UniProtKB/TrEMBL annotation:
<dbReference type="InterPro" id="IPR006626">
    <property type="entry name" value="PbH1"/>
</dbReference>
<protein>
    <recommendedName>
        <fullName>Right handed beta helix domain-containing protein</fullName>
    </recommendedName>
</protein>
<dbReference type="InterPro" id="IPR011050">
    <property type="entry name" value="Pectin_lyase_fold/virulence"/>
</dbReference>
<dbReference type="Pfam" id="PF13229">
    <property type="entry name" value="Beta_helix"/>
</dbReference>
<feature type="domain" description="Right handed beta helix">
    <location>
        <begin position="321"/>
        <end position="463"/>
    </location>
</feature>
<dbReference type="InterPro" id="IPR012334">
    <property type="entry name" value="Pectin_lyas_fold"/>
</dbReference>
<dbReference type="InterPro" id="IPR039448">
    <property type="entry name" value="Beta_helix"/>
</dbReference>
């Protein structure tokens, strides 16, 4: 057993009284020790200057909070952040030189500060082949602006950098950075109800320029001089640069575990990481969920007579700040993932990983993203306030898996889907609770399952309430989902509870014994591939709650948490 403390020393032996200072030193000691090893982290902030990586050589090692599982459990924070201390003031704004640091988030006394923004282009504006024109002169002074395009499609949100602006008579010509803008023009093309649109359209918001720094509590990272970036923060009343703790996330990856067996993390907090990829000229050309477009061509989906939409032939997934790749029997238990600039936890490949009793909050992208793994278990986790920057991100996303179980999780306050399962085999989505999903973007659900699922897939005992936006399906099976039993779920307060007619059509899908507060779309004429039997619609909420008390009491977290 070894110990690590922010007050330790790597020249010590790693005992409880003489702990190591760094995780790297503890890793080296664990590799030299015989048998499985436990590394205990004392409370406080353990600052990483580079990603902490574990490999096959670290198999069998457990990293846990000191006192884990007892009333004396401490809170070790594994942080990729850097405190900003050297401030100067100008006209009420705090300024600090940060060199070549790239970050998109800022945390002030633990609060996520918003990037300074304005609601769209000023003046009479219109799109051009290379950007925009407007009759306002304001953009001539912008030097860091990032254009946000929320709802290009109802389920998308692009982020594109501005390259420059010039005066042309009484107009301002805005040129957007390439290749991002060109990719957006290539991807976003649709026809609907006789109307055709091409490109991202006018921005819904514009962020991160000093000219926008008007609202107290907001910040800008001025990157106009390469290698000499300046952080600007407009403080809230009462904040003092001598006392206020300001943390800039620096690392993009906190922890990477690759090829290890029986590695575990217990009771740790993973915090303060960023993801700078959208700062580049490529921008963030989002399509759906955690996927974004980096070129490679698009295809067209026909949605009906005279209706179509283009979609990427290939897409890339937003990364996670903590990653497990091709591990066997790994475990993440009782941990918290917070203040992260991408997704929280990413799992790719491998077998038998379990994530239990964890908290995911204050994340720019998704909570948990799993792809291509076998026998992964996600149980008793709470996901909330995620997708704060990349609004298409689901709370929990699973695709290409075999035998994955998603059970007893609570997902709430998310901008798009709560739980998403893509094509896979035998997934079981059991007794989860989703509340206040689809808060920002449309066309999704509290639980969304897409594509064939082999045999034996289940969506059972889930409670799905308060699915927001004007177009959604609380419990949504889509894109030729097949081999699924949908049973004993409760869906209420959604725009639509569910839908039976989708394209490609559902096959070998059974809806049985579900409770709704409104009939699903197509319930009175189920397609040939759908069995619809024994479902109950109760419009009165009190009666519905009474009838479903047993189901609701078993859904959500196994262990209530404050």
């Amino acid at each position: 057993m070894f110990h690590v403390s922010p007050e330790g020393d790597d020249s010590w032996e790693g005992s409880a009284t003489r702990p190591f200072l760094t995780l790297e030193r503890a890793r080296s000691a664990a590799r030299e020790a015989a048998g499985d090893v436990v590394v205990r982290l004392r409370g406080g902030v353990h600052v990483l200057t580079r990603p902490f990586e574990l490999t096959e050589a670290d198999s069998g090692t457990v990293y846990e909070a000191y006192g884990y599982g007892t009333a004396e459990q401490e809170e070790p924070v594994v942080s990729g952040g850097r405190p900003i201390k050297e401030w100067r003031e100008r006209d009420g704004v705090w300024l600090a030189g940060v060199g070549d640091l790239e970050f998109r988030q800022l945390y002030v006394d633990g609060r996520r500060a918003a990037r300074a923004a304005v609601p769209g282009l000023p003046g009479a504006a219109e799109a051009t082949a290379t950007g925009y024109v407007t009759d306002s002169a304001e953009p001539l002074g912008w030097r860091n602006a990032e254009f946000v395009h929320r709802g290009v499609y109802p389920w998308t949100e692009a982020r594109l950098a501005m390259a420059g602006a010039s005066a042309d008579g009484g107009r301002t010509v805005i040129t957007m950075a390439e290749p991002g803008f060109g990719r957006a023009v290539e991807l976003y093309n649709s026809t609907w109800e006789g109307n055709t649109s091409r490109g991202p359209g006018l921005p819904t918001a514009i962020e991160n320029d000093p000219a926008f720094l008007r609202e107290p509590g907001t910040f800008v990272l001025d990157r106009s001089r390469p290698g000499d970036h300046v952080l600007m923060y407009l403080p809230l009343p009462g904040e003092d640069p001598a006392r206020t703790v300001v943390i800039a996330p620096v690392l993009e990856t906190l922890v990477r575990v690759a090829g290890a067996r029986e590695v575990a993390f217990k009771g740790l907090v993973f915090a303060d990481a960023t993801w700078s990829r959208p700062n580049r000229p490529e921008g963030f050309v989002h399509y759906h969920g955690s996927g974004y477009y980096e070129g490679g061509g698009v295809e067209t989906a026909v949605l009906g007579e005279g209706a179509s939409v283009t979609f990427p032939r290939d897409s890339v997934t937003v990364p996670a700040c903590v990653r497990f790749e091709d591990t066997v029997g790994a475990a993440v238990e009782g941990c918290r993932f917070t203040r992260l600039g991408a997704s929280g936890l990413g799992v790719s490949g491998g077998e038998g990983l379990s994530v239990r009793g964890c908290e995911f909050d204050t994340l720019s992208a998704g909570g948990i993203v799993v792809s291509g793994s076998r026998a992964t278990t996600l149980e008793d986790n709470r996901v909330r306030r995620i997708g704060l920057e990349f609004s298409g991100s689901p709370g929990i996303a699973v695709t290409g898996t075999r035998g994955c179980v998603v059970a007893h999780n609570e997902v709430r306050e998310v901008p798009h889907c709560g739980i998403v399962a893509g094509t896979g085999e035998g997934i079981r989505i059991l007794r989860n609770l989703t509340v206040d999903t689809m808060q920002v973007l449309a066309d999704g659900g509290g639980v969304y399952l897409s594509g064939p699922q082999g045999e034996g897939a289940e969506v059972r005992g889930n409670v799905i309430t308060d699915t927001r936006t004007p177009y959604n399906f609380g419990l949504y099976l889509d894109y030729g989902a097949s081999g699924v039993t949908v049973e004993e779920n409760v869906v209420m307060r959604a725009d639509n509870t569910s839908v039976l007619h989708v394209g490609p059509p559902l096959e070998d899908v059974v809806f049985r014994g579900n409770f709704w507060d409104a009939d699903p779309v197509g319930h009175d004429d189920p397609p040939g591939g759908v069995t619809y039997e024994g479902n109950v619609t109760i419009k009165d909420e009190r009666e519905l709650n009474a009838a479903t008390e047993a189901i609701r009491s078993r859904a959500g977290l196994l262990r209530p948490r404050g």
